[in-house]
Write a structure and sequence with these properties.
The chain is an alpha+beta fold. It folds into two domains: 73 residues, no CATH class; 222 residues, Cysteine proteinases (Cathepsin B, Chain A), CATH 3.90.70. It is built from eight helices and eight strands. The strands form two sheets. Strands 1, 3, 4, 5, 6 and 7 form a six-stranded mixed sheet that branches. It has a two-stranded antiparallel sheet with strand order 2-8. Strand 5 and strand 6 form a beta hairpin. The longest helix has 20 residues. The protein is globular, with a radius of gyration of 21 Å. It binds 2-acetamido-2-deoxy-beta-D-glucopyranose (2 copies). The site of one 2-acetamido-2-deoxy-beta-D-glucopyranose (NAG) has 6 residues, from loops.
Length: 319
């Protein structure tokens, strides 16, 4: 059945015909696969280099895509658009990417009148945006990002420093981390304090769980003195940020739709680890680990306040 539909779709496109059965075909949740959807789907596949060898799979993924397009259509905030995650259902997205293992933290108090602008990216103290791939290792990227910045600010490294997330994924399970199934920045800081962390060059990222390779953990090694949990207020977060970038936990449930602008369409169920790197025009600037084609070249701007719960579970390493 689905194969026939796909053939019909392909035929429609090839012949340039306008009114075949596709316009009338209703899919799950009653989202129609219109010519416009097909056009955007083709563009999506090109943009993100998505390939589907199984036609049934492709039809199903196009239906999911159509449902995600409906969410964008209904958006009134102007921050939603098509992203690389549009062939995933919200449930699939959450199970792969929203894996931070944080106990639901007490809600932070929003007590800052206004934020003071600071931008660690333009100051040259933030390393490049990375991509965690299909592995729930956000916590490892938040950790390396925070440590890389702390080392640069302490004069112990340049901003070409690239620390190993894979070492954290593979080797920090005795501190409570679960590799690609999730983890916590503070647990990673505890591990690094004892074991130190090597570079990406020595221990490269493969976006999957592996056995810990002790042989790869070799010089140059970077450590930390300790780490500090930021008090649960937006003013304390601002004060901490004026010294260095901060590892934060957020509710990223709707981030799969984010393409730019000041975002606030979220609650505070913490499920993702990222790096707070600045305040721009009073709003928070955050570095993510979903590559540079996501959001604002890999970054997201969060509205001032405790948006997405960003002040509920913040911490930073000390050198
Ligand atoms: C979009 O809005 C319409 C009209 O309010 C509503 O019926 C529909 O369920 C919404 N769709 C999504 C995916 O939010
Ligand atoms: C995600 O965005 C939708 C659509 O704007 C909104 O209705 C919903 O409350 C948001 N969900 C969360 C968890 O923030």
């Amino acid at each position: 059945m689905n194969k026939l539909i796909l053939l019909a779709l392909a035929g429609t496109v090839l012949l340039g015909a306008t009114l075949l059965l596709v316009n009338h075909k209703r899919v799950s949740n009653d989202v129609p696969i219109t010519e416009e959807v097909i056009k955007q789907w083709k563009q999506y596949k090109l943009t993100y280099n998505k390939k589907f060898s199984d036609p049934d799979q492709e039809v199903y993924r196009m239906e999911v895509f159509a449902q995600n397009l409906e969410v964008v259509k209904n958006d009134t905030t102007g921050t939603f658009g098509v992203t690389q995650f549009f062939d995933l259902t919200p449930q699939e997205f959450a199970s792969t990417y929203l894996t931070l293992k944080v106990e639901n933290a007490e809600e932070a108090v929003h007590d800052a009148e206004s934020n003071t602008d600071i931008n660690w990216v333009t100051a040259g103290k933030v390393t490049g945006v990375k991509n965690q791939g299909q592995c729930g290792s956000c916590w490892a990227f938040s950790t390396t990002g925070a440590l890389e910045s702390a080392l640069i600010l302490a004069g112990q490294a340049t901003n070409s420093l690239d620390l190993s997330e894979q070492q954290l994924v593979d080797c920090s399970s005795s501190y409570g981390n679960q590799g690609c199934n999730g983890g916590l920045m503070d647990s990673a800081f505890k591990y690094i304090k004892v074991s130190q962390l090597t570079t990406e060059g020595n221990y490269p990222y493969h976006a999957k769980d592996q056995k810990c390779s002790q042989a790869s953990i070799k010089a140059p090694l970077y450590g930390l003195k300790g780490f500090t949990d930021v008090a649960k207020t937006t003013s304390a977060l601002q004060t901490a940020l004026l010294k260095q970038p901060i590892a934060i936990a957020v509710d990223a449930t709707n981030w799969s739709y984010y393409t730019g602008g000041v975002f606030s369409n979220c609650k505070t169920q913490l499920n993702h680890g990222v790096l707070l790197v600045g305040v721009v025009n009073g709003n928070w600037l955050v570095k993510n680990s979903w590559g540079t084609s996501w959001g604002e070249k890999g970054y997201i701007t969060l509205q001032a306040g405790n948006t997405c719960g960003l002040a509920n579970s913040a911490s930073f390493p000390t050198e």
